[in-house]
User: Fold this.
Amino acid sequence: MKKIFLSVVLSISFVFCATFLWAQNTVKDSLSVPKEEKSVTHHSVTIDGKIINYTATAGALILRNDQDEPIAFYGYTAYTKDGQTEMDKRAISFSYNGGPGSSSMWLHMGAMGPKRVLLNDPYDNHPAPYKLEDNQFSILDISDVVMIDPVGTGLSKAVGKAVNKDFWGVDGDIKSVSGFIKQYINENNRWQSPKYLIGESYGTMRSAGVANYLQANLGIVVNGIVLISTVLDMRTLTFQQGDDISYILNLPTYAVAAWYHNKINNKPKDIAAFAEEARKFAAGTYASALMKGSDLIDSDKESIASQVAAMTGLSKEYVLKANLRINEPQFTEELLRSEHLTVGRLDARYKGINQNLLSEASIYDPQSESISPPYIAAFSDYYYNELKVDKKLTYKTSAYSTPGFNWDWKHNKNNNSDAVTPNTAVDLAEAMSHNPSLKVLALNGYYDLATPFFAAEYTFKHMGLEKRIQNNFELKYYEAGHMMYIDPASGKQFKKDIATFIKETSK
Assistant:
């Protein structure tokens, strides 16, 4: 009897402890998951002489995984045109920047949103006050816009059992952004709307993966993709030892940068014609010389060095010392070294002071240093005071300062799972092959040294697409840099190109 009593007591104690622990964990989990944040405000903007009344929704939704468990407090800002009843005729565009690790602030306040930061492009910008104006380049007149801030940026962060590093990688990022898009579509009844992905820089790499993931796993087919300053294959940018492809693909951008800074003798008037000349040299004579490696004889090397120098504005001696191979940080430091200046990476039109004339490579980007303070200050004022987001919520313009931020570059679509130079062009090729009506618009800045236009062209031509869908690509070029929409003339053309693309693909 005593043993039975003891057994019952132990059983009750076990059940009580288990229940207590379960309750504790439930409370702990619920406390770690914040509530959805949503600030809804109403505004109007004049675009092309027409008044657009719209609703802005800024905050974060609670992203759920396949088991409906909360995994992220996911920040976004949505702009929807008022008075729309036929949502199957109203396009919706999901937009983001790159990094990886950048918020969507740049596209938000430079091109996509209803307000635009005024900048002195491509020159220095003074301290505050900064000005905002109605954004004539916004596509809000033809498409609703949802600006997405990936985890670690904006308000976004992991919650529940998830951790930030779950989202910090090529595949984790593709899956979570796709999940956000599906959840937003579902919660806002946008299943029948024409849908678009508009990404910049690493955001183009993301878009290629997201388009395919949405299509293959979530049953969502997008009408079109806009790639702004494209990089799909990281190998084209990395200047890896023993791999000459980056040197070849960057050379035409070096050439047009030298053209802009008047470092070309007998400078031709037409930048497009000069860019084409540089393409032909890079893909022909220059590429053939690099392919020979150590078999290139001295006399041929001297000849090629002279041609590279004439094409890029660098000295023949410098080109020879570099063994004909100049990477981007070396070029931006060397081109205007004699003037004690450094050239911009994101936009080679920008010039900054070079404080170390002995340095081999540039250590800062004059364009980034010039535009970041105006963007951050103007956006913060707009976000918290006009969109009325709770000031207790910290908006992170990037994830780089977040503890533990480290990107996982492995991509499951690439044959080598340990590849450090992933390629999502394979994702885009798959998406386009499975959906032959999918169209892609690629926007390129001539002066963009971060994602050179020739590298984008090379990637598109090496995707192995069937001939009947090769023409589903459309490329446009601007006499500007990585963020071509900052330049007023390019911004106007930027809007026109995207608007035309959406109109033609949403029918």
